[in-house]
Amino acid sequence: MTQRATTLIFIVLTFASIVHAHDTWVQTNASVVRTRDSVFVDLMLGNHGNEHRDFKLAGKIDLENCTLEILAPDGERYDMKDRLVDTGYTPSEGFWQGRFATAKPGLYTVAHTRDTLRRNARSIKSGKTYFVASEQLDRVSESNPGFEKPLGHALEIVPTSNPVTPMGPGQSIAVQVLYEDKPLAGARISFIPRGATLSGEFDKNYERMTGEDGRASYQPKEGNHVLVVAHHTEPDRKGEGYDRTNYSATLTVLVPAICPCCD
Which residues contact residue 213 at a Cβ distance below 8 angstroms, ignoring those fewer than 6 apart? Predict the structure, then answer.
């Protein structure tokens, strides 16, 4: 086999391992609930790294290599892993789901990380979503701070506008992509509504490239779950058992049909 053929095979295998990497995300059944009511948190595994870039599931993750917690408005942290139940009949079906009861009004953050080795590559992932607990559902406060605080994930999508209040059709989902706590410029970021399948290598309807400040935005047209996805690869970041490091970050925004705090 010639050196050129060997190089081409290496490139193809490397590209395949990157584009078929499974991404994880977290989502909730509601974006606003009454204080002391429960929220159901789902931990999902999907194949968003491929050219389809959609909401389709691709199995269920191993909980041993991940974290899942909720950050309350007062800074209290709650580990969700021991509350999770398996919704599938087999290890490769379904997803994990846990119930969390709110105690105080304000913005709650659901945070997830995963660090694994696969095909000689280290895969570091993060996922986030948010929900608000309110004393009254017919008068939800627009002021629910805390979404803008980075959590220190290796690759992280940080909202620059509140993803819960206000939120609805016509309200922009504005974010900043951080890599090792610094803005990541020139990154492709996908805004994927549930049910949509992105087309081509770059779908201008649903994808953006971050600027020098790592920022991008998307304006949803209807109520739906929107999955925000970013990837980054460090081909020279090696270690024991791996010869490169792949990063992915997700943010799930539940866009209501009617803004919960708008007149």
Answer: 176, 183, 185
List b or e across 211-234, with b for residues whose CB sees 16 or more CB atoms inside 10 angstroms. eeebbbebebeebbbbbbbbbbee
CA 245 centroid distance within chain? 18
pLDDT in tens, 143-158: 999 999 999 999 999 9
* Rg of the chain (C-alpha set): 19
Sign (positive or negative) of CA dihedral 48, 24, 94, 121? positive
β 106-118/85-86 pair status? unpaired
The tokens for 237 are: 């970041």
200 vs 197: CA distance, rounded Å: 10
CB proximity list for 189: less than 8 A, separation 6 or greater: 157, 175, 177, 207, 208, 209, 210, 216, 228, 229, 230
pLDDT tens profile 64-75: 999 999 999 999
HEC assignment per residue over 34-94: ECCCEEEEEEEEECCCCCCCCCCECCCCCHHHEEEEEECCCCCEEECHHHCEECCCCCCCC
Q: Are 46 and 57 in contact (CB under 8 A)?
A: yes
**Architecture of the 3-255 domain:** Sandwich (2.60)
Residue-level pLDDT at 199: 86
pLDDT below 50 — which residues of the chain? 1, 3-20
